[in-house]
Amino acid sequence: MYFFAPDFNQITRKMSEIAQKVTSIIIDKLGVEESEVTAEASFTNDLGADSLDTVELIMEFEKEFNISIPDDQAENIGTVGQAITYLDANVK
Amino acid sequence: MELKRVVVTGIGALTPLGNTKDEYWKALAEGVSGAARITRFDAEKFKTQFACEVKNFDPLDFLDRKESRKMDLGTQFAMVAGDEAVVDSGLDLEKIDKNKVGVIWGSGIGGMITFQNEYTGYVEGDGTPKFNPFFIPKMISDITPGMLSIKYGFRGPNYATVSACASSNHALMDAFTYIRLGKAIAILAGGSEAGICKAGVGGFNAMKALSERNDSPEIASRPYDKDRDGFVLGEGAGGLILEDLDHAKARGAKIYAEVLGAGMSGDAYHMTAPHPEGLGIELVLTNALEDAHLKPEDVDYVNTHGTSTPLGDSGEIKAIQNILGDHASKVNISSTKSMTGHLLGAAGAAEGIATILAIEKGIIPPTINHFTDDPAIDPALNLTFNKAQNREVNVAISNTFGFGGHNASVILGKYSG
User: Fold this and answer.
1) Domain ranges, ordered by start, for chain B
2) Active site residue B342
3) CATH of domain A42-92
4) Which of B64, B65, B133 minimises the CB distance to A55?
């Protein structure tokens, strides 16, 4: 029924807001250009992050989106796209 | 074994008086004060509301954002002063054997601002421990020589010296020793400190160590003046390239001065108070002169520790008189802390540089802010009050003493072939 149909417009906006914030955090923390921050880009292989940078990124995501990302979940967030997908699914 | 001779071939300075070696020297020779009201934080509630801050410093002028964010302010200072020294030395980084080039660097405290800010962030939260992964590596004082070595690929001796306000003199003398022994051909040595923050000012205030002359900061640091009321907190960095003389000569390097000797001692007396008879200071001066094979009569200039504290200043002067004897009244004595404030762990480097430039230029930088003689200090002494004096300097001593009773003196001399 129309009443229960998901609001695609709303979801898209939420995801793009998340993507925007994620991108600006990555630019700030890793000192990279916006053009490098693609969905497939790996923090360590493509964006020059070391293990501490990666920990810091996760912490920044937690702070920005006011959530807690458990360590076993954080281990699976290795690319920009994975971060956006995870946050989209978990941010209220 | 025969000891190598060691010379200074590169200098870099980032100080409350100027952000390069040349600006620093110009202000020293002109007798300028680096003190002003604190700008880094709101000091309204603090007993002391002024300090000698480094001015017009933007780390992004020197470091990229990612790099600079991972460094405490003190390390940022070090990267700038260290680079000036490396560039100034003219060392060919492509040709030199980097396995024989070290970095030995002092800081009295380490990343105090980093500690303060990270911990504040924690206590202001809900108690969940969320510390930045760079908190520890940014804070620890040995990270600075580590970061400098990474920048240049210097793989020789690499560590930090920590002896409060004597830290960078210990760095200089360790560098001197390793080169002397043939363990390194060159060492980037010096120190940095960035302790002007709430924790730093509040902590030193609690000790009653700082001047509280808030109405006139620029005349607060007044070593040897009767009305001195404590030191003025400073910050910054000094870097020197110490080099094996043979290596320096072979590459046609500019030689600023020779390191002639160094001495160390401990007071074994009190946590923070200097020995009342200056025994540790007498010992360090004796050790340094002996190490340099020099006699008291050879000394032309003493750049003192002279922090502008009531007890410290007079104790050091008594010790100098006891060791130099009749010659004491013939030397120039000055405390450049009257201008720079107290750079703590960077003091030895900053004052070593002042001493070397005094040798190079034939000018003794003054002890500014002298208004009233202190009856406890012999008026026969030439404390180079208020105005620089011209003097040929062949041999000079740079003194530093740290809380804990650590005394370290370096003897520098004109290089004369």
Assistant:
1) 7-250, 263-413
2) yes
3) 1.10.1200.10
4) B133
pLDDT per position as a tens digit, B310-321: 989 999 999 999
Q: Smallest Cα–Cα separation from B358: which of B31, B8, B7, B29? A: B29
Within a 10 A sphere around the Cβ of A30, how many other Cβ atoms? 22
Domain-wise residue ranges, chain A: 42-92
CB-based contact, A56 to chain B, within 8 Å: yes
Rounded Cα gap, residues B303 and B283, in angstroms? 17
CB contact under 8 A, B65 and A59: no
Closest by CA position to B258, among listed B6, B16, B63, B74: B6
Residues facing residue B258 across a β-bridge: B7, B413
- The answer to whether the Cβ–Cβ distance between B137 and A52 falls below 8 Å is yes
Digit-coded pLDDT (tens) for B4-32: 999 999 999 999 999 999 999 999 999 99
Element of type H or E holding B246: helix B245-250
Residue of B165, B197, B370, B406 marked active site? B165
For residue A55, give the amino acid letter: V
Query: Is position B52 annotated as part of the catalytic site?
Result: no
pTM of the model: 0.94
How many angstroms separate the CA atoms of A61 and A82, rounded? 12
ipTM for the predicted complex: 0.78
Q: Which CATH number is B263-413 given? A: 3.40.47.10
The yes/no answer on whether domain B7-250 falls in CATH 3.40.47.10 is yes
